[in-house]
Every structure is written in C-alpha cells, then in structure tokens.
Amino acid sequence: MAKETWKYLQQIPVFADLEEEELKKIADLALTRRYPKNAYIFFEGEPGSGFYFVKSGAIKLFQVLEDGREKILHFVREGEIFAEVVLFDGGPYPATAQTLEDTEVGYIRNEDMEDLLRKHGEIAVKIIKVMSRRLRQAQIHIRDLALKGAYGRLASTLLNLAEEYGEKKGEGVTIVLSLSQQEIANLIGTSRETVARILSEFRRLGAIKVDRQRITIVRPELLKDWF
C-alpha cells in the first residue's frame, strides 16, 4: 500500500520537524503526477509554477551546454524536494528534470505554498536552509571541476554518490542509481570514453566493482588517493 502523502513530506528535510497535522495541511496542497522512465517533468527556462518532491523513482536535473552536451547538476530520489528555488523568485526553472525510472512525484503550486508560508514562517526558514545546502554542494562541484583532473573528479563524485545514494551490501557500498557512463561523464564534465577508461582502472586497482550500471565502492581509501 502506498504511503500517505504527508509521510513522504516527513522525509523531506525542510518539513521533517513539523507535526503530523501540519504535514497533513501541506499534503492537502499536493497534486500527484506519474511519469514513465526518461520522461521530462519540466524544461529549463519554462515558467516556474511550483515545486516537487519524489514519492517513488528517481530524477536527474541537468542543463544543456552550448555544444549540446548535458551538464548533470543533481540526482533526486524518494523523499527529496526539487525545483524549490522557484518558490521565492517566481522565475523560470533553472534546469531540466527528467526521470531515470518510472517515477511518482508530488507537486505543490507556488501560490498555494506562499499562502501557507505566510502562516508558518518557520517553514520558509527551513526551505532556505535546504537551498543553502544545495548551493554549498554546487560550489564544491565547481571547485572540483576547476582544481581536479578527471581521475580526481570521478573518484570524488563516486564517493559523494555513495554517501548520498549508497546502500551497504556485503563487501562495500553500492550506489543505488543506475547510471550510464555517459551520464557519469556529463556529471563530471568529461567524455564517455574517459569515464570508461578510468572506471576500468579503478576496477583493476580493486577500488570498485561494476555490475549492470551499479557501482559498488569496495575500497574508498584507494579512491581518496586520487584527490
């Protein structure tokens, strides 16, 4: 049986400290939308009409560079919020959202949430904290692109993904996102061929194992050697 919407909201950091009745009031605002794998939820530049949270599935947020390549900004999974930046400025969506698998999301319109924020100022503060964390992550990613070579960027990215999306499985931590080599390349700003070569080297060293697009970190200390 699917969880009630307020229980998904409870998983989102911005709402985690709210009481059940407060969460249910927010849940009353939410519309449920379902998308198949590889579907687009919104495109970069579209008017930002509301924000979303993931009830099941996974989403990638990306921008398209001038040469047509994707620059992946963030992955979003169950219980996480995305597109919250449009809540305050009413501007366009700054990135495109596409599903990585069959996905169900909750959607809350800006105007409805704004009415709620006027009554619950503490929620606005928590949303700002979430945005600050995302900004910090973006700054770290920009620093990595500028200062680290491809080996260091990929090693750092794998460890960050394992920390955020990892599950302990026997001999290591498995990243529970099925990512293609091209998607990883888009994430660290290099080519698919370079990613394939580096992953092969990391495998040869015994740092990782790869099985059907799932990467398991076996010896994280070997990846840290590339920093």
Automatic annotation (TrEMBL):
<dbReference type="GO" id="GO:0003700">
    <property type="term" value="F:DNA-binding transcription factor activity"/>
</dbReference>
<dbReference type="Pfam" id="PF00027">
    <property type="entry name" value="cNMP_binding"/>
</dbReference>
<feature type="domain" description="Cyclic nucleotide-binding">
    <location>
        <begin position="14"/>
        <end position="134"/>
    </location>
</feature>
<dbReference type="InterPro" id="IPR000595">
    <property type="entry name" value="cNMP-bd_dom"/>
</dbReference>
<keyword id="KW-0238">DNA-binding</keyword>
<dbReference type="InterPro" id="IPR036388">
    <property type="entry name" value="WH-like_DNA-bd_sf"/>
</dbReference>
<protein>
    <submittedName>
        <fullName>Transcriptional regulator, Crp/Fnr family</fullName>
    </submittedName>
</protein>
<dbReference type="Pfam" id="PF13545">
    <property type="entry name" value="HTH_Crp_2"/>
</dbReference>
<keyword id="KW-0804">Transcription</keyword>
<dbReference type="InterPro" id="IPR050397">
    <property type="entry name" value="Env_Response_Regulators"/>
</dbReference>
<dbReference type="GO" id="GO:0005829">
    <property type="term" value="C:cytosol"/>
</dbReference>
<dbReference type="InterPro" id="IPR014710">
    <property type="entry name" value="RmlC-like_jellyroll"/>
</dbReference>
<dbReference type="GO" id="GO:0003677">
    <property type="term" value="F:DNA binding"/>
</dbReference>
<dbReference type="InterPro" id="IPR036390">
    <property type="entry name" value="WH_DNA-bd_sf"/>
</dbReference>
<keyword id="KW-0805">Transcription regulation</keyword>
<dbReference type="InterPro" id="IPR012318">
    <property type="entry name" value="HTH_CRP"/>
</dbReference>
<dbReference type="InterPro" id="IPR018490">
    <property type="entry name" value="cNMP-bd_dom_sf"/>
</dbReference>
<feature type="domain" description="HTH crp-type">
    <location>
        <begin position="148"/>
        <end position="221"/>
    </location>
</feature>
